[in-house]
Structure formats: C-alpha cells, structure tokens
Predict the structure.
Amino acid sequence: MAKKTQIKNILVTGSVGQIGSELTMALRDKYGADNVVAAGNRTAPNEELKNSGPFEWVDVTQIMQIVDVVRRYDIDTIINMSALLSAVGERIPQKCWDVNINGLINCLEVARLFELYQVLCPSSIAVWGDYAPLDNTPQETVLKPTTMYGVTKVAGELLCDYYVRRFGVDARGLRYPGIISAETLPGGGTTDYAVWIYYKAIEEKKYECFVREDTRLPMMYMPDCLKGTIDLMEADFSTLKHHGDFNMGSMSFSVTELAANIKKHIPEFECTYVPDARQKIADSWPSSVDDSVAREEWGWNPAYDLDGMTKDMLDKLQKRHDEGKLYG
Ligand code: SER
C-alpha cells in the first residue's frame, strides 16, 4: 500500500452538523460530488446533503466503521467534524471525551495504518481558560480550559501534533471562534446565541439571550470558516511550522453591539438577557485572538466584518422566512 499523496477522495465525519453540512457542500463543489463522502451518526441528513453525493453512517468511536468507509471509497483525506460542543459537553462530559478524543484518535490511527494523505480536525477558542490572556490571545500561551470540551480540544491538538512528529501523519487543525451561519443551526454550544439572535430577529423581532449583554467573544461568518478550512487543507505541508492549533480570528463583538447592528435593519428588534450556565463558559474564553501565525504560515485572511455578515444573514433568513421555511 503506497502512501496517498494528494486530496482526491474525502470523508467528512459529523457532516450533518452546523459546519460539516456546509463544508461538505463546498468540498463537493470543488472536488466533485462523488469524491466527498458525507458521514453522519444518528441525525438524519437534509435532502441537499443526502442527494448531492454519497452518504454513510459512521460513529467515529467505532474504528471499524471508519475503516469500512475508507476502504470502500478509497479515502485519502478525513475531515473530522464530529464533536460534542461546550454546553452539552458539561452535561455529559464522559461522552464528550469519548466522541471528541476517541473519535479523533481513531481517525488518526486509520490515517497512520492506511497511509492516508491528511486528517483535519478543528480545535476551538475553548482551549483557553485560566491564566491565559483573554484579549488578543496569542498563539502560544497557557492552555488550561475549564470545560470538558476545552480539555478535549487541547488534548486533540496535542494528539494531532504527536501524530505528525511520531508517525509522520499529516494532521492539521484550527481554533475556530464561534461560527455564525444561515443554513444549519448549531447545537450544544455556548456561541449559539450569535446564530439564534438572527433567526429570532426575523421570526419574532425579539430574542432572549442566554449570556449577558457585555459578553464579547471572537466570531466568524461561515463563508470565511469554509474558506479558511479549505485553505489550510490545501496548504503545502512543508511550509507549516504549526499543525493542529492555528489561532483563527475574524471579528469580535459584544451582544449589545450585535443587537445594535441587527437593529439597523430591523428597528423594532429587542434583545433581553437571562444568563444561564453558559455564561460561565463564555467568561472563560477570549474576547479576541491574535491569528498572525495563520496569516503568515498559510495566508489566512477573512473577508467579512459584522456589518457584512449581518446584512447577508438577514437577507438569507428573510428570504427563507418569506418562503415559509425559515428552519429548513
Ligand atoms: N462554538 C463552540 C461552542 O460554543 C466553541 O468552539 O461550544
């Protein structure tokens, strides 16, 4: 078996999720629909995902299920988007560890054993917590997260770097901020409020936010997330000094600023605040990150700011609402 040397046949695990669903479609556009296998576990794929290319059920905690798909489709690249996010991870921490870490090591092991070309697995702003500077957080600083999700993301970054160093597996990852998008709703995360606020602004002209108005977190619009992820996938491995842990910044705003931005388009919009357990998680994360290393090593350069994102989100959601299918 010869080592695979290029991206041809891609497996996207967690493809039914918020990012996976749009990333799969973007990869199908670029690499050919039949060459991108979407994999889900339990949640049914939407019609677009299911009908536009191959779909398989894969539980990443079961290595033989990954092996089976890799063999049948001659996979060379695994994009592991399967994960339990921060809020749900606090409810079921053991399961969060199982999916996020045992799932990842299974992907890395398959890549090692079958000599695949690449594994990409996202990390998150959740890697930070105690003792890290939370404003313009640098690439290299203390990683002491306070959530199980954060623990798994730190361990995941270290695992990727270990597989690069020890086994020569090409493993890559980026620390996503909160991702805002209009296609698939997020589930179980702390940054989910920044998506729901748009849906509720369109639907009810009001939103009850589960974090305080002064909560400021790094965020990114989906088109930038897709572009950055694909750019990192396609970057020349030999030019990368970092591998599993690139800081990735875009915009940063408080909920007050986000609500005011929406109000420019929907003047009646009102946001109220009833913080719950997710506040503590949000407070442990940075307000902004320094992504100069990603900019230098593989040319990261996001396009959207808050104004551009709000306009695009509201246009898309309003159109769907008018067609009677805001939620798909
Ligand atoms: N969006 C994630 C969450 O809120 C952070 O990576 O859990």
About this structure: The CA atoms of residues 12 and 86 lie 21 Å apart. The first strand starts at residue 10 and ends at 13. The chain has twelve helices and 14 strands.
